[in-house]
Amino acid sequence: MAGHKLAGPQRLSGGHDPIPAFDVRLDEADVEAVAETLRSGWLTMGPRIEAFEAEFARHLGVQHAVATSSATAALHLAYLAAGVGPGDEVIVPSITFVATAAAARYCGARPVLAEVLGQHDLSIDPEDAAARIGPRTKALCAVHYAGYAAPIAALREICEAHGVALIEDAAHSPSATVPGEERKLGTLGLAGAFSFFSNKIISCGEGGLLATADDEVAAFARSRRSHAMTTGTWDRHRGHALGYDVIDTGFNYRMDEPRAALLSARLPRLEADIAERRRLTHRYRALLGEVAGVSLPYSNEQVDASSCYVMAATVDEPELRDPLRRVLSERFGVQTTVLYPSIAQFSAYSGDSQEPLPLCERVARSQITLPLYPHLGEERLERVVHAVSAALDELGRGAGSG
Q1: Which helix (H) or strand (E) holds 127?
Q2: H or E element: which one contains 333?
Q3: Which of 56, 134, 279, 290 has its CB surrounded by the most CB atoms within 10 Å?
Q4: pLDDT(324) > 60
Q5: CB distance 106 to 86 below 8 Å
Q6: How far apart are CA 30 and CA 40, in angstroms?
Q7: pTM of the model
Q8: Secondary structure class of 225 (helix, strand, coil)
Q9: How confident is the model over 108-119, as pLDDT tens digits?
């Protein structure tokens, strides 16, 4: 069937289309699923939410999946369910999206920023995280950056030894595993938070999900996502309840029916999409491995277990990163992004690291994210690699410069 996508930028003078960093393509069945929901007349949380939650729980192999308005909301609920409150601390890596830290602040807690392992692996460093655990630490968040597993066994051991809850930020990881294992990321701690934001591997525009094997955590999340009401609008609509009580301060963290319908329509293609992402990532790694001046985190074995959300690389000379991005955009029409600035460098979070984070700071200055999505194709991938090599040549650090 014909795909649906937004109109892109105009062609370059050489006849090539610009290559975006992210691109979303929907099938007719996706559009029809949303249209059917709109025709139904029931748009807020209801049967399609329930169906998607059941489908995604089966996909993850976990007992409970609780759909939310965003991954940020899921993280907030996960921290609250772990007992995080005013005056507490949550350890998070400084290389992550700011929501990982912001959700701790929503609880009245302080995010404690930790180092990553380095340019070879952008996961939180277990030793550094352990050193930052104090009497107020209630949770530690493992971010599975780009869909690659954080060192979850070491982190879980640390959390168990200190009586700290392990929360997983699995926003990038809807079907990833630890290499050599079968259990999916986001199901290995007390709770995992997933994102369905527009540029994610499976997306619906805005949306998230909390996954957990803990019955109490699931019940807490289901209640607090909808104002802590004892019954929902769908139950009252069907006559299953005449009223409701409010048992605590809750939130409006509900997903709506059109988004759930879109996710259910797209979910059957998820594994095939990730398989293509892995194939393209291996191709990138083979070609970029011949380009001097660029280094690649992770290993081929890790690729095979990853959801390959983004194609991350680092520039060996950080001062060339921003000029490289400009040349790629202006001369070659290749869009890039940076995932992520170090949270410690943001004005609002500059006081949340007790000491300098040199590895995070270097990663933040050198990381570049190249285009990656299932329909990227070989020709455009090779254009990206050629553009990177040519741009580094122009900047004085191209292939063969040593």
Answers
A1: helix 126-131
A2: none
A3: 56
A4: yes
A5: no
A6: 16
A7: 0.93
A8: coil
A9: 999 999 999 999
